[in-house]
């Protein structure tokens, strides 16, 4: 699918505010509201835009402690096995296969250190995990919901 500069701008505007009206977006990209809707519908049907969501501040719901955990796995553990295990833990907000020594990197959020420790213990109890290395986040410096460097 061809994505032109107008599509990229529409995507950036939706990432910044998924509740923006087609008319508001149209004003910013010099298109009519129906033209923006057609482009958004095309982007959705092509799978470029997979959905719209609310972004919740973790601190506002009490999940203020977070960590990144490197997982080291037994011999033939597949990414699918790691992903399935990660989805079983509500504290996991992201899981990734990575290059380097570790097999995967898991991002956890929890209410406090005690909750984080309990979540780590459950994650490390997965049958394929041989060891882990954790890093607790002290502060967030940069966080972007976007897909790239383009800005609205």
Descriptive overview:
With 152 residues, the protein is of the alpha+beta class. Helices cover 36% and strands 20% of the residues. It is built from 5 helices and 4 strands. The protein has helices at residues 5-16, 22-29, 33-45, 79-87, 113-124, and strands at 65-73, 92-97, 104-110, 129-136. Strands 2-3-1-4 form a 4-stranded antiparallel beta sheet, covered by helices on one side. Helix 2 crosses helix 3 (33-45). It is elongated, with a radius of gyration of 20 Å. The model has no long low-confidence stretch (mean pLDDT 93).
Keywords:
about 150 residues; alpha+beta; 4-stranded antiparallel β-sheet; elongated
């Amino acid at each position: 699918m061809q994505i032109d500069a107008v599509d990229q701008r529409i995507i950036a505007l939706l990432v910044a505010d998924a509740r923006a009206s087609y008319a508001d977006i149209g004003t910013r990209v010099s298109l009519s509201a129906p033209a923006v809707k057609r482009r958004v519908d095309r982007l959705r049907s092509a799978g470029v835009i997979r959905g719209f969501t609310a972004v919740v501040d973790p601190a506002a719901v009490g999940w203020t402690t977070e960590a990144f955990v490197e997982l080291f796995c037994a011999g033939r553990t597949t990414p699918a096995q790691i992903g399935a295990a990660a989805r079983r833990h509500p504290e996991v907000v992201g899981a990734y296969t990575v290059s380097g020594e570790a097999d995967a990197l898991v991002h956890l959020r929890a209410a406090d250190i005690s909750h984080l420790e309990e979540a780590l213990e459950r994650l490390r109890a997965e049958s394929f995990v041989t060891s882990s290395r954790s890093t607790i986040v002290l502060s967030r410096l940069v966080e972007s919901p976007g897909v790239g460097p383009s800005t609205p």
